[in-house]
Amino acid sequence: MEPSDAWGMRWQSSASPLAKRYMKVATAKQSLVCLAADRNTMAGLFDLIDDVGEHVAALKTHVDLVDDWTPEAWAEFCEAAHEANLLIFEDRKFADIGKISRAQMAGIYDIRSWSDLVTAHLISGPDVVNGLQAGWTDVGRTGGVLLLAQMSSRGNLLHPAYTAEVVGKGAAHPGVFGFIGNGSRPEELKALRAAVGEEKMIWTPGVNLAVGDGEMGQRYGDPTEAVMAGSDCIIVGSGIHKADDPKQAAAAYARASWDGLTKRNG
Ligand code: 5BU
User: Fold this and answer.
1) Which atom in ligand 1 lies closest to the alpha carbon of residue 238?
2) Domain count of the fold of the chain
3) What is the pLDDT of residue 13?
4) Which of 60, 218, 231 to mutate to test the pocket of ligand 1 (most atoms within 8 A of CB)?
5) What is the pLDDT of residues 144-195, one digit of tens each?
6) CA atoms within 13 A on the CB side of 118
7) Is residue 204 within 6 Å of ligand 1 at its C-beta?
8) What is the extent of the structural domain holding 39?
9) Which of the following is catalytic: 20, 24, 93, 247?
10) Tens-digit pLDDT profile for residues 128-149
11) Which of 90, 119, 136, 198: CA 20 to 30 A from 65?
12) For the whole model, what pTM was predicted?
């Protein structure tokens, strides 16, 4: 299948090479799954790529939660991710002023040198996006920012008026790849898609085949429903990395997400 057939308006209206890269990978693997690789050892992370790389389109990291992190091991890990044809997305949730966000793209983790995508809150104003883009430019790379328009956690303070402002400011910015939406609430996602329009991506955490409340305030919605409501990518962590058989689980999430895209188009 061609990406244009699978993605319809998402593909046609996209002016972003990065979004097109994601859509191509997702089509090739028939998977709209981003694995939240929340394991705290390098060995655990390498095992995950080996096990599930073929069934997921992107890899979301929290680089600062790995106990035995070294720059060398991380470089190898990113290499393994590239070999498995995965986009790399650091969920750093930047939120500072522009120049500090730029500086935070460097530092010990040097996120600018290996990430394709990062998350940011727009709470400090639009310059956070310019700062992050400057970070990638500093090392001759390009990347995209996913702005947090909604969150999956209960009691979060990203109320509808805030969401509307984030979408209004972010939708026109070329450095913004898209928005994080709440995967646990299809009705919120539908409203978000209506506000965002067709061009930008919506990626959604808070998704699990076991719908309901998760640990410590996390909430989960159904993967197929999230995609039908407008999500372009379901972000799944423990549903895959804590499963008895992560490979089988990743394949099940891939199927559920692809089914959602087919139904959304049909
Ligand atoms: P889980 O194990 O599928 O619950 O992991 C969810 C991941 O998505 C985890 O890495 C969170 O940091 C991330 N996340 C989230 O759960 N909710 C949000 O609103 C945002 C990110 Br933004």
Assistant:
1) 2
2) 1
3) 87
4) 218
5) 999 999 999 999 999 999 999 999 999 999 999 999 999 999 999 999 999 9
6) 29
7) no
8) 3-265
9) 93
10) 999 999 999 999 999 999 999 9
11) 136
12) 0.98
Q: What is the CATH number of the domain that holds 171?
A: 3.20.20.70
Closest ligand 1 atom to Cα of 206: 16
Residue nearest to atom 17 of ligand 1 (CA): 152
Question: Could you identify the atom of ligand 1 that is nearest to the CA of residue 180?
Answer: 22
- Ligand 1 atom at minimal distance to the Cα of residue 93: 22
- Which residue's entry shows tokens 């305030």? 217
- What is the pLDDT, as a whole number, of residue 266? 81
Residue with the nearest Cα to atom 10 of ligand 1?
Answer: 36
93 catalytically annotated: yes
Q: What is the pLDDT of residues 3-61, one digit of tens each?
A: 999 999 899 989 999 999 999 999 999 999 999 999 999 999 999 999 999 999 999 99
- What residue's CA is closest to ligand 1, atom 14? 205
